[in-house]
Write a structure and sequence with these properties.
6-stranded parallel sheet; 17% helix; alpha/beta; Rossmann fold; 12 strands; Flavoprot_Pyr_Nucl_cyt_Rdtase; flavin adenine dinucleotide binding; 4 helices; 2 domains; FNR_nucleotide-bd; globular; Riboflavin_synthase-like_b-brl; 6-stranded antiparallel sheet; single chain; 2 iron, 2 sulfur cluster binding; Elongation Factor Tu (Ef-tu), domain 3
């Protein structure tokens, strides 16, 4: 495992319904400084279980020593990672993928779309924008979840809005909850969203991605202005 590096679990925290935040300490490893673009993925491994790719939810930092992830217990590896205690060892490779082309959004409007755990790499974008908010135009996040309790980073939404990031939330299965907000899929709520001089970043299920791309293109946004993080 020469290209694998041992990292340490710093925290495992509940994030939302069926979602858990995992924080890894990468200090003292060659991994520091290699997360360069929001939206990149990292291959994590537990030797006795296997390996898989996970999007980094924290913003890139040249000398940052912590990586944050949002996990859904949908695989044996995810379940084992969620069950770890602080101090446990997790092996990681260097970040992969092109991520989201954030420099293309400078001086322009930015539309962000995420569903469920797909908010993880989009959060990395938002945290990057907050550090240099004046470099970007209007930023709107369309955030969908299955139920009202399934929105990750609930306690951060206010900070995002205070930074001038508009947050539009919608629930696909409100059930008998007291949810009073929007319902349905994110692409159904674009309304009169302006798309001139705008780029869009998407992360979520393929059906959402397809629906959002179709809706944006129908509004006049060129397909080349729509970006995925893979």
């Amino acid at each position: 495992m020469n290209d694998w590096h041992p990292t340490t679990v710093a925290a495992v925290l509940p994030a939302a319904e069926d979602l858990t935040e995992l924080v890894l300490d990468i200090s003292g490893t060659p991994l520091v400084g290699h997360h360069r673009m929001p939206g990149q993925f990292v291959r994590l491994s537990l030797p006795e279980v296997g390996e898989s790719m996970f999007a980094i939810a924290s913003a890139p930092e040249p000398s940052g020593t912590r990586w944050e992830f949002l996990l859904k217990g949908s695989s044996l590896l995810s379940e084992r990672l969620i069950a770890l205690e602080p101090g446990a060892r997790v092996y990681s490779k260097q970040p992969e993928g092109q991520g989201f082309p954030l420099p293309l959004a400078r001086g322009r409007g930015l539309l962000l779309f995420a569903v469920g755990s797909g908010i993880s790499p989009i959060r990395s974008v938002i945290e990057s924008i907050r550090r240099e908010r004046g470099a970007y135009g209007q930023v709107t996040l369309y955030f969908g979840a299955r139920t009202p309790r399934a929105f990750a980073y609930e306690d951060e939404l206010r900070h995002w809005e205070e930074a001038g990031i508009r947050v539009v939330r919608t629930v696909s299965q409100p059930g008998d909850s007291d949810w009073q907000g929007l319902t349905g899929y994110v692409q159904a709520h674009l309304n009169e969203e302006p798309v001139e001089n705008t780029v869009a970043f998407l992360c979520g299920q393929s059906s959402m991605v397809k629906g959002v791309i179709e809706a944006l293109c129908a509004r006049g946004l060129p397909r080349e202005a729509v970006h995925l993080n893979y």
